[in-house]
Amino acid sequence: MILDKKYIIAILGIIAAFAIGLVFFFMFAEPYGDGLEKTMENADYEEEEQSYSAPLDYGDNYFAALIMGIVGFVIVLLCVLLYARFMRKKDETRDN
Amino acid sequence: MHIPDGLMEPLVLACGWIIALIVVGLSFKILNKRMEDKQIPLMAVLAAGIFVAQMINFPIGGGTSGHLVGAALAAILLGPFAGLVVITTILVIQCLIFGDGGITALGLNTLNMGIIGCFVGWWVFKIFPEKYGNIGTFLGSWAAVFIGSFACAVQLSLSYSLSGGTYGIPFEIAVPMMLGYHVIIGIGEGFITTGIISYLTRTSPEILKMPKITFRSPKEVMVK
Question: Contact, B7 vs B102, CB < 8 A?
């Protein structure tokens, strides 16, 4: 088992905090751009079409954002775990 | 603070890629050599946690919002090299899978949020003795965001000057606006990071005592 009980509890806690935090995000901050976006807006800079079209986005309502957040959470978690496991295996093979 | 495609001058983008590839490559190399098994779950859960935390913007007034970057948090918990690997992984997934941040600007985004965030956050945090850890955490997180935003403002101004106005934003708009917004966003970052570190200090002190992947002292290098 890669993740022990302590980390499983932490994951559940983070997902729960995310689900609650998203409520406040949609209530208070959703329409507002971040610091860089506001700077671009104030300089009358129009964002160009992006050169790469990503397969997913963060979603524009609570449930879509919640699902996309969990999808992203799992992808990031697995990427780091698989990378670290791969590197450890490589080390073990080299040591043997 | 995710820079989109088409905002920066290609030469500035290229410089960002070169710096990011060198520093991130070195960080991966150091991480691969010194990573311990017990650090792996923390790295993975922290990376995933920062990813979702970055999705939650908080209002800072004046119709503007900000979100946690998490670079100082990752650097304080894992050390700056492992922290940078965590933030880079998040930025790559945000860009390639969710379209957050331009693919051509990935180098600059890694430089501003990852490299500057992790190393500035770590160094400021380390200036303070352990008993002033909360102050170090708060100021380290604030400085990580503020200096990162200053770097972004300089890149915007450079892009504007080099391209004769085709790319970027003039210095007199970019610098005061970016710094004005991020001086406040950094305070949010500071409170969130200090809150998380204080919570972990109370509930899981062993996490804070885990070895950090950081710079070796000259003595350690000589022993090696």
Answer: yes
Domains in chain B, start-ordered, CATH in brackets? 10-207 (1.10.1760.20)
- The Cα–Cα gap between B88 and A17 comes to 23
The ipTM is 0.94
Domain for residue A41, yes or no?
Answer: no
Q: What are the chain B neighbours of A3 within 8 Å (beta carbons)?
A: 41, 44-45
B172: nearest CA in chain A? A43
Instruction: Return the SS3 of B66.
Output: strand
- Tell me the per-residue pLDDT of A39-67, one tens digit each, with 9 for 90 and over: 999 999 888 777 889 999 999 999 999 99
C-alpha to C-alpha distance for B203 and A70, rounded to whole angstroms: 25
Beta bridge partners of B66: B58
Q: Could you tell me the end-to-end alpha-carbon distance of chain A, in angstroms, rounded to an integer?
A: 23
Q: Tell me how far apart the 2 most distant CA atoms of chain B are, in Å.
A: 55
What is the secondary structure of B100-118 as a DSSP string? -S-STTHHHHIIIIIIHHH
